[in-house]
Design goal:
Elements lengths: L6 E10 L4 H16 L3 H14 L3 E3 L2 E2 L2 E4 L6 E11 L9 E10 L3 H16 L1 H9 L3 H10 L11
Parallel strand pairs: 1-5, 3-6, 4-6
Antiparallel strand pairs: 2-3, 5-6
Helix pairs in contact: 1-2
């Protein structure tokens, strides 16, 4: 699975303004709901409920908010780079500036797990995170996302 299979260019935000975690989730919910064709309030509620289970701030300045939604037909990804890092209750207690929202249909846990694994792989790559932080535009960020190999693909030519 490749990241661009569920993340469209319209799902990239290069300079999201958010004063805190709640506002960041609200803005991601707005964009994700629009792309998915679902109710924004339902997306925001699902994200808040997931965060109550434990923060999706996975460390090193990144967070991976995600939720399953009834009625959703496909995976939907939204990537946001914040203008200013925010407290996200991350596991390493560091502020977050890169967020990747994943919305998944309620009955497709395998697809959700595969997508979360791909996003996690992106965020484990320090070079990719650096490039995402330095990219000047949403288009440049999308090019980085699109260039990520599928699971199991080698990033290096043979």
């Amino acid at each position: 699975m490749k990241l661009d299979e569920f993340t469209l260019p319209e799902g990239v935000i290069a300079g999201l303004r958010a004063a805190g975690k709640a506002q960041a989730l609200r803005e991601l919910a707005r964009r994700g709901a629009r792309l998915a064709g679902v109710d924004e309030a339902a997306v925001e509620k699902a994200l808040q409920e997931r965060e109550q289970l434990g923060s999706t701030g996975i460390g090193r300045g990144v967070a991976l908010p995600h939720a399953r939604l009834p009625g959703l037909k496909r995976l939907v990804g939204v990537f946001a780079r914040l203008q200013q890092p925010i407290d996200f209750d991350a596991i390493d207690q560091q502020p977050v500036d890169l967020l990747f929202l994943l919305l998944a249909p309620e009955n497709t846990p395998r697809d959700q797990i595969a997508a979360l694994a791909r996003i996690s792989h992106l965020f484990r790559d320090a070079g990719a995170c650096g490039a995402l932080r330095q990219a000047p535009t949403a288009e440049a960020i999308y090019a980085i996302i699109k260039a990520q190999p599928a699971a199991g693909d080698s990033a290096k030519p043979s």
